[in-house]
Amino acid sequence: MISPDQWSTIRSLVDWIDRENGRSPHEIAVRILKVTEEAGEVASAYIGMTGQNPRKGITHSRADVEAELCDVIITAAVALASLTDQPAAVLDAKLAKVADRAAVTPAP
């Protein structure tokens, strides 16, 4: 889960982006689209890690894939925090639903 300190940092990132780019409906849409861009970077890094492009060979490491996954998480959290004032509660509720559907016990 994202800790309260991490949510505080995410909120600061949202504030910074708001100052730089504003918070128009278009800007919120771009923040959501940014999640897809970051997911593509994960795919590219994984392909590079596994050498699936014979022309390029192995170009990335596991650490690169991990870093790109973190970028996806951060970007999604920023987008979520741009849509709601209660991003932690929204994420907690969704995680509880997914855990229930998967029949796993959520952490206390």
For the structure shown, list the relevant keywords.
4 helices, 0% strand, globular, 108 residues, mainly alpha
Shape: globular
Largest sheet: none
What share of residues are in beta strands? under 5%
The level of helicity is over 70%
Number of beta strands: 0
The secondary structure category is mainly alpha
Question: How many angstroms separate the termini?
Answer: 11 Å
Mean pLDDT: 96
Q: What's the order of the H and E elements?
A: HHHH
Low-confidence stretches: none
Radius of gyration: 17 Å
Number of helices: 4
What's the arrangement of secondary structure elements?
Layout: H1 4-21, H2 25-50, H3 62-83, H4 87-101
Provide a descriptive summary of the structure in words:
The chain is an all-alpha fold. Helix content is 75%, strand content 0%. It has four helices and no strands. It is globular, with a radius of gyration of 17 Å. The chain starts with a helix and ends in a 7-residue tail after the last helix. The model has no long low-confidence stretch (mean pLDDT 96).
